[in-house]
């Protein structure tokens, strides 16, 4: 896949797979491993020469394919990208905001289907992430663990017998594992149950964040649930703890949806179809409103209230309508007001195309 395709195609191939694992509520699963190499200064203390040397070394080591099904990883260096191109990769969750900002000798290696992203010279020397559609924690862990073993067979990690894998941030020391799922929880938000659930989740070492992780806003009722602890627990324990909480959240979201249908059906339908009408006809649409309206429509699709529209529309338009992609398609910088106009047009065109195809 060329650089242009990584940048210009909103939907990563892994997102297009026919995934039925609770995908009406769990949009995606991510496993991320933080690793550093022995005998290299950590990125926070590395000189330009050291960072450049590490980039050349790691990219060369990973230039051979992991296996035939994944193929060769393509190297993209941050210094070769415009600010907006980096923004697009952040919007697709292929790189972190940190890597986009700290671009000197930073890079990412991507698989053809974009399900594997290996960031180099981010907060740590290597940030390996695997992305799956729906609720696939085990599949994600198996793949990331295999890739980790493959890399460890070629390099020497910074590792301590008592502390585990050593990382730049103390919160990642130990397993270096962050497992997360992206969940669409509109009914728990509408019924105001989520505010009481989040503290209970935090008490067991998990955290609820926005769509782009730490410090980000939960746009469109989409929340990222992940582990907060990496030290003192095994990788499998972390995965199982997260799995248990996600299963409970799925059950509670389903129960809240049924309660809304049973006790507030007309109000719910009115909210959903008002949002559909605004998305289909508006000429100006701000980013936050677009996310919330798309969430309503996705809920309507999942509850079988809206027909003839793909359930993937939330995943797709949540990315397509972000500032980076809007400017990428316009092939020019846009003011916030111009982006709001372009966003509304893109959504209208996409809904019209959906109706034509059906």
UniProtKB/TrEMBL annotation:
According to the record, the protein's activity is controlled as follows: Appears to be allosterically activated by the binding of pArg-containing polypeptides to the pArg-binding pocket localized in the C-terminal domain of McsB.
Q: For the Phosphagen kinase C-terminal domain, which residue ranges apply?
A: 25-256
Q: Which InterPro entries match?
A: Arg_Kinase (IPR023660), ATP-guanido_PTrfase (IPR000749), ATP-guanido_PTrfase_AS (IPR022415), ATP-guanido_PTrfase_cat (IPR022414), Gln_synth/guanido_kin_cat_dom (IPR014746)
GO MF entries:
protein arginine kinase activity
The record's catalysed reaction(s) read: L-arginyl-[protein] + ATP = N(omega)-phospho-L-arginyl-[protein] + ADP + H(+)
Binding-site residues for ATP, renumbered to this chain? 28-32, 93, 127, 178-182, 209-214
Q: Which UniProt keywords apply?
A: Allosteric enzyme, ATP-binding, Kinase, Nucleotide-binding, Transferase
Q: What is its EC number?
A: 2.7.14.1
Q: PROSITE patterns attached here?
A: PHOSPHAGEN_KINASE, PHOSPHAGEN_KINASE_C
SUPFAM superfamilies in the record, alphabetically? Answer: Glutamine synthetase/guanido kinase (SSF55931)
Question: Do you know which HAMAP family this protein is assigned to?
Answer: Prot_Arg_kinase
Q: What function is annotated for this protein?
A: Catalyzes the specific phosphorylation of arginine residues in a large number of proteins. Is part of the bacterial stress response system. Protein arginine phosphorylation has a physiologically important role and is involved in the regulation of many critical cellular processes, such as protein homeostasis, motility, competence, and stringent and stress responses, by regulating gene expression and protein activity.
For this chain, the family text in UniProt reads: Belongs to the ATP:guanido phosphotransferase family.
What is the name of the protein in this document? Answer: Protein-arginine kinase
Species this chain originates from:
Aliibacillus thermotolerans
């Amino acid at each position: 896949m060329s650089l242009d395709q990584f940048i210009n195609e909103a939907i990563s191939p892994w997102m297009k797979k026919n995934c039925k694992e609770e995908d009406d509520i769990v949009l995606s699963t991510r496993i991320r491993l933080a690793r550093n190499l022995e005998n290299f200064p950590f990125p926070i203390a590395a000189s330009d020469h050291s960072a450049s040397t590490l980039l050349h070394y790691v990219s060369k080591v990973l230039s051979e394919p992991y296996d035939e099904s994944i193929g060769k990883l393509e190297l993209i260096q941050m210094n070769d990208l415009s600010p907006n191109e980096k923004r697009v990769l952040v919007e697709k969750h292929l790189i972190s905001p940190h890597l986009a900002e700290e671009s000197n000798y930073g890079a990412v290696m991507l698989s053809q289907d974009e399900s594997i992203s290996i960031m180099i010279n981010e907060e740590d020397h290597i940030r390996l992430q695997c992305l799956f559609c729906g609720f696939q924690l085990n599949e994600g862990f198996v793949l990331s663990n295999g890739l980790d073993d493959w890399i460890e067979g070629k390099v020497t990690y910074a590792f301590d017998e008592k502390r585990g894998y050593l990382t730049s941030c103390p919160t990642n020391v130990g397993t270096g594992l962050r497992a997360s799922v992206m969940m669409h929880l509109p009914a728990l938000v509408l019924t105001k149950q989520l505010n009481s659930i989040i503290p209970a989740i935090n008490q067991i070492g998990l955290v609820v964040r926005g769509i782009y992780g730490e410090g980000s806003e939960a746009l469109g009722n989409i929340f990222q649930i992940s582990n907060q602890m990496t030290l003192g627990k095994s990788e499998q324990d972390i995965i199982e703890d997260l799995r248990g909480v996600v299963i409970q959240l799925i059950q509670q979201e389903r129960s809240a949806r049924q309660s809304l249908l049973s006790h507030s059906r007309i109000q719910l339908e009115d909210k959903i179809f008002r949002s559909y009408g605004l998305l289909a006809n508006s000429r100006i649409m701000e980013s936050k409103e677009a996310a919330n309206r798309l969430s309503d429509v996705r809920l309507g699709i999942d509850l079988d209230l809206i027909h003839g529209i793909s359930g993937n529309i939330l995943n797709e338009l949540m990315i397509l309508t972000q500032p980076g992609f809007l400017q990428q398609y316009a092939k020019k910088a846009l003011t916030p007001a111009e982006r709001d106009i372009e966003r509304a047009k893109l959504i209208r065109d996409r809904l019209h195309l959906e109706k034509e195809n059906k």
